[in-house]
Design a protein that fits this description.
Number of helices of chain A: 13
Mean pLDDT of chain A: 95
Radius of gyration of chain A: 18 Å
Order of helices and strands of chain A: EHEHEHEHEHHEHEHEHHHHH
Oligomer: homodimer
Largest sheet of chain A: 8 strands, parallel
Shape of chain A: globular
Low-confidence stretches of chain A: 1-5
Helix content of chain A: 40-55%
Strand order of the largest sheet of chain A: 2-1-8-7-6-5-4-3
Structural class of chain A: alpha/beta
Largest interface: A-B, 40 and 40 residues
Strand content of chain A: 5-15%
Amino acid sequence: MTQQSSSPPRGVYAAVLTPVGADLAPSAKAFIAHCRWLLANGCDGLAPLGTTGEANSLSLAQRLGLIEAMVGAGLPMERCIIGTGSCALADAVTLTQAVLAAGGTGALLLPPFYYKNPSEDGLFAFFAEVIERIGDPRLRLYLYHFPQMSAVPVTPALIQRLKAAYGDTIAGVKDSSGDWNYTANLLKQIPGFGAYSGSEQFLLDNLRAGGAGCISASTNITAPLAHAVFRAWQQPGADALQEELTQARLILQAFPFQGGLKELVARLTGDRQWLTPLPPNRALAPAEREQLFARLKEVRGLEPLLKAA
Amino acid sequence: MTQQSSSPPRGVYAAVLTPVGADLAPSAKAFIAHCRWLLANGCDGLAPLGTTGEANSLSLAQRLGLIEAMVGAGLPMERCIIGTGSCALADAVTLTQAVLAAGGTGALLLPPFYYKNPSEDGLFAFFAEVIERIGDPRLRLYLYHFPQMSAVPVTPALIQRLKAAYGDTIAGVKDSSGDWNYTANLLKQIPGFGAYSGSEQFLLDNLRAGGAGCISASTNITAPLAHAVFRAWQQPGADALQEELTQARLILQAFPFQGGLKELVARLTGDRQWLTPLPPNRALAPAEREQLFARLKEVRGLEPLLKAA
């Protein structure tokens, strides 16, 4: 991973899962252990407290607690893009300030997602207010485009307006739309923009188009395979590696996504705490679990991982 | 308004707007003044901190602060149904506990709305967890069905499951779907259920079907007209009164809803603070404002209100 002051960090980021205890509060210890595993197994950086991290199910105090735990554990905050979005303006500001105070600069910001069909002016005003309250030129904001989940798209027109007003602070986007054209068009409009694919299915396409990499939920498991693609993206074998990575991703997303990933991390770590679901997300049913494990055996590159577990 | 221990409070509730200062934090003083105006002008009860109250744009501390301000002002908490929904389980619990600590019993709870297409099991688990953590038989939960905004419907099947498990605690529903059949069917399934129409357009239909009344955004303005319908609902003139109320509602919802209502309260109170929008909601443009005021002159029953302003 190369990081220059004016260009976004490149590579494979995991949208880190959040384990919870029986009291449904985050378990910082298991979370930190998993962060370390990810960094040791192919992740160039971490993107905790996003959708997969169930941040919107956590209170402000719980989210701040996990950021503090990361600092306490000596994790490389400069290689993190931390989810700080909230419909509540004051909370989005508090969380983003916490990222900077923790030595990070990257924040992944959802639009205020409760309100549907907001005006572009209204969304601009929200993001502008966050940026101006932070008032720190080190801040690098990544806008979170996930219309299927947030129901509020981050349009290229809005990004252009924000970029015109706030320059380098508007550092990139996480495109979880599943529509490769969104990223492709954006990179044509803003060359060098820090565009991360929300699915590693588009990792190679994105790197070839000048994008930054991926921030994906399923790289909680597929990090070693995604890393192989990233390392080899300019080499002849890249397409075959991407094909295998895509195969893994497509299997994972054919099952209840959150529950499936937690199931796999539980198996990987031997820590059954990972199996506790945080409502409304749910755990896999026994039959789903068996099916998922059976299907993943088709992916050759995951063999060492599943065998070690 | 008659209230029995086992039946929901009936009547006209306003989904109270939240004024904010230049710092975009709630202005408790203007909020309380408006609460008092509503109770003096036709509201049987108040429903603050819902969608119209922009509660999801406020931090937990800001929401708790408004509940405290209501208690401090001596408002009748037993006549309030307070929005306590949050995607964050811990926050939904804290807010609902605060309602009970404040002497209220009614809480209006959204489903955890960030996650789309959640399973019924997952939603049941969320609501069950809130109820069991509260563990107080006085609690009266009203489930908030607003699929256009939350994107997560509260299905009759889910309500039946919750009611079977938690009896009187599951006291009713706020139906903001705009689909009268939702309420009509629910009242057939659960006679005496505390069903409130999210639009006063359905107030008379709802009362005749055995429903409880309305909890509406636009009753921030139309409370006197809605009160007239509620008072007369079993009398011959009820339909004509409902017709006028519906006319007012339809005009109001033809404009940016939030901005229009705040514009009108600003005019009513002479307090320009009401004009400050909380992003992503926006204020009316001057032309919209003129149009709105012109259209409302068509509603005879609003004349005294607009003249007094």
